[in-house]
Design brief:
Layout lengths: L2 H4 L7 E2 L5 E6 L13 H20 L3 E11 L8 E12 L2 E11 L6 E13 L12 E2 L3 H31 L15 H4 L3 H4 L5
Parallel strand pairs: 1-7
Antiparallel strand pairs: 2-4, 3-6, 4-5, 5-6
Length: about 200
């Protein structure tokens, strides 16, 4: 392989609107809990589904969910309501894409509508070798798209910190950790956190 073949040519940017994906569904009795509102897990499955489609549209490659960065439930979704989810890629970085999802609930009898949830997710595109591959940039055109695009680097930094925190606790707890009452061991605080602070400064 010569030098030119090793070069990664940046892909041209694609409009955020090109990845726009809309999914609608009605909330049926099996979708609800004893309060008559939709199961959080059910709504999260809808969110992951529509976000996956949006990320795939942008990358035109297979994608995997790297992180569900946030899901904020703002209003209850009740049995008989319709839910409309809209998703689009807000920002990309090398092989990853951030996707924003807005969930609107509608009372089909009164026509009342509310934004019941918002979510940010991160996806990674895969190449033919099933390894992360470069994705196009994002062209933000509307005011809303530009706002999400300009604030995305801050959310990426928050993800990096949270991911390092997750790695720390995964390593500290280990696979053999049992949630049971044990005799407390005296472990110096600096020993517990050894390597933790430095992890916050590493990239992922």
């Amino acid at each position: 392989m010569n030098v030119l073949e090793k070069l990664v040519v940046p892909l041209s940017s694609r409009p955020a609107s090109a990845s726009l994906t809309i999914k609608e569904s009605i909330v049926l009795p099996p979708d609800t809990n004893h309060h008559g509102t939709i199961f959080g897990g059910k709504l999260m499955a809808y969110i992951d589904d529509v976000a996956t489609i949006a990320a795939t549209k942008h990358a035109r490659r297979p994608v995997v969910t790297a992180s569900t960065d946030s899901v904020d439930f703002l209003h209850p979704v009740r049995k008989g309501d319709a839910v409309s989810l809209s998703a689009f890629v807000t920002w990309s970085h090398k092989t990853s894409m951030e996707v924003f999802v807005r969930v609107v609930t509608e009372d089909l009898l009164t026509g009342g509508r509310k934004v019941c949830a918002t979510s940010f997710l991160t996806f990674v595109a895969l190449g033919d070798d099933d390894k992360p591959t470069v994705v196009p940039g994002v062209l933000a055109e509307s005011d809303e798209e530009r706002l999400l695009f300009s604030t995305a680097p801050d959310r990426k930094e928050a993800r990096r910190i949270r991911r390092q925190e997750s790695k720390h606790f995964a390593n500290y707890m280990g696979t053999d950790y049992a949630f049971k009452e044990t005799q407390s061991k005296s472990v110096p605080q600096h020993s517990i956190n050894k390597g933790y602070e430095s992890a916050w400064g590493s990239d992922w």
